[in-house]
Amino acid sequence: MSKTCHKKGPQASIAANLLTLKKQLADGCKACGRDPADVKFLAVSKTVNDQRLQQALDLGVRRFGENRVQEAQAKWPPLRQKFPDIELHLIGPLQTNKVKQAVELFDVIETLDRPKLAAHLAKECARTGKYLPLLVQVNIGEEPQKAGISPHDAVNFARDAIEHHGLNVTGMMCIPPLEAPPAPYFALLTKLTREAGLQEISMGMSGDFTIAAQLGATTVRVGSGLFGAREEI
Ligand SMILES: *Cc1c(COP(=O)(O)O)cnc(C)c1O
Question: Residue 233's Cα: distance from chain center in Å?
Answer without folding.
Answer: 20
